[in-house]
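#struct-help
A.M.: can someone run this one for me? Single chain, 191 residues.
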Amino acid sequence: MRLIDEQTKTRNSFAIETNFADVDTWKFLLEMQKIGYKIHLKFFSTDDIHILNERISERYRQGEHFVKPEVVMERYVNGLNLLNHYFTRPDILELFDNTKKMVRLAEITQGHIIEVVESLPNWVTQYLGQHFQQQIEQQKKVRELGSIEEVRKNYEDLKAKADSPLQKKDKSGNDLKEQNKNSNKQKPKGL
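D.P.: on it. Structure tokens below:
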């Protein structure tokens, strides 16, 4: 904290690395925001908790600290739940998936989705889904169509419906368009 205090006294920009799994970290970020700092949060996660445990084990073999799998799970869930709660608070929020290779999933500015990839991983839809609901619904509709031929057919059907003339009926249910054609044939010339 001493280094952060030094930076804030001189109004320098700074970065911290954390799992965002506790409320105190979020409170600290909000306090920094109140005194004029812009919060640019880069959040990295994965769909597979086993990958995280394997990475921790590998780092431990290289001499770094060990974290028990149950602690990893607790922090994973807490971090995602808190991100969901504070989703609209960062000035800029970027989501990255690191399941297989690093992929930037989305950019959100003060809760407004600016960019998002076409297909979101499970950790996003499960924990942050309410914020992406409209995007998820659009993806679902596209997947339900299945093929480009189905998309074209759906488009042509909608276009045909829009292009067809409105069928107006009189009180007895007779087609007014047909009645107008017939009445035009019976009008005497010169009227």
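A.M.: thanks! The radius of gyration is 29 Å.
D.P.: also worth noting: Residues 2-118 form one domain.
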